[in-house]
């Protein structure tokens, strides 16, 4: 059986998802999308511990993702970084069982087409998530820790920070 590996996009890292049980991997471009100091420190120390590996996709995988987007008929809004991250998951399929951790719907859609498993950062049932999230007092919608506003974008109620246990 192939080894499991988590492929993290910026939302995964900012959301506090760095697995201690399995390998984590991302591309260099994702790191430059991480602006908040707390996440930068978390990534740096995970890199120092060898818990996060940085790797780039191969050209074949990039072409495969490009084709899938063109053939999908949908207008998928994927940045170059997003496409490279998806392509990295394609590259990894040869040697690993990649699981992409992302809250980005466009990325999730293209992963569906490519039949690569994924999970949301804030989805229930993820045992290895730790860090902070924000929750609306009204409708209980969950937001990533770096959500900038004090009010819920759905119902306008107050949003508060909550610690997620590991
Ligand atoms: Zn709300």
UniProtKB/TrEMBL annotation:
GO molecular function, one term: hydrolase activity
GO cellular component: preribosome, small subunit precursor
GO biological process, one term: maturation of SSU-rRNA
Record's keyword annotation contains Hydrolase: yes
PANTHER family tied to this protein: RNA-BINDING PROTEIN NOB1
Presence of the UniProt keyword Lipoprotein in the record: no
Protein keywords: Hydrolase, Metal-binding, Nuclease
Highest taxon above the source species: Archaea
Source organism (scientific name): Methanobacterium subterraneum
Gene3D superfamilies recorded: 5'-nuclease
InterPro entries registered for this protein in UniProt: NOB1, Ribonuclease_PIN
Name the record gives this protein: Ribonuclease VapC
Domain Ribonuclease PIN: 7-92
